Amino acid sequence: SQGRPTYFYGLIEFVSKLDKLVEDLNLDKVEKDVQYQFVNLNKHPSMTTEVFYNSADAPPGTVLDRPVVIPIRLPDILINWEFRAVPKDGWSGPSTFFIVVMVSVYGGFFVSMVTFLLMESKSLQIVEAWEILKLRAQQVRECFLH
Q: What is the pLDDT of residues 8-55, one digit of tens each?
């Protein structure tokens, strides 16, 4: 080892934890619907990539589109991993119905706000006109009384 750390015990721990994790997650059943990768955030210098375990259709070097990320942390044995997964068919976008509903809601809100502001503006104009009429009537009365 010549002063450099060895990783033999870490490797044994790594393999035993990974096998148990893969078994517990039933990844063989999940793989038909999901692309996934296990990523080691503390990559060993001998590793060429951070991805150390993956589904067949998400090999190392594959960039997953907006993956769900689940951290796996075992600090006592220096495990700092992430499980990243995406649906095989990708994330579905918003449906046409949803877009139409949202445009209708926001459009309706916009129209109601414009209508309210126009009515409020008219109301203010009527109040101002009434005040002007009262002022003019007062001025006319004063002219005739003097």
A: 455 566 666 677 777 777 787 878 888 999 898 887 777 788 998 888
Would you say 51 and 60 are in contact if contact means Cβ atoms under 8 Å apart?
Answer: yes
Name 67's Cβ contacts closer than 8 Å, sequence gap at least 6.
37, 84, 85, 86
Which residues make beta-bridge pairs with 29? none
* Residue with the two structure tokens 């502001």: 117
- Cα 108 to the center of its chain, rounded Å: 26
- CB-CB contact of 69 with 50 (8 Å): no
Per-position DSSP letters for the chain, written without gaps between them: -TTSPP-HHHHHHHHHHHHHHHHHHTHHHHTTTEEEEEEETT--TT-SSSEEEE-TTS-TTPPPSS-EEEEEEEGGGTEEEEEEEEETT------HHHHHHHHHHHHHHHHHHHHHHHHHHHHHHHHHHHHHHHHHHHHHHHHHH-
Higher pLDDT, 140 or 33: 33
